[in-house]
Amino acid sequence: MDGLMLFDPLFRVPLLTGLVLAMALALLGAYLRLRDEWLAAFALSHVAAAGGVLGLPLGLPVVLTGVLAAGTTALVLGLIRTISNNHYAWTILFGWAAALVLAANTRQGSVVTESLLRGQLYFSSIWHLAGAVLLLGILLLSLPWLSRRLMISRFFPDYYQGNRIPVWPHRLLYGALVVGAAVLGTVAMGAVPAFAMFFVPPWIAFVLCHGWRSAVYCSVLIGVAAYLLSFVLAMQLDQPFGPVLVLVLAALAPLRLLGYLR
Question: How distant, in Å, are the alpha carbons of 46, 72, 176, 217 from that of 68?
Answer without folding.
Answer: 13, 6, 11, 31
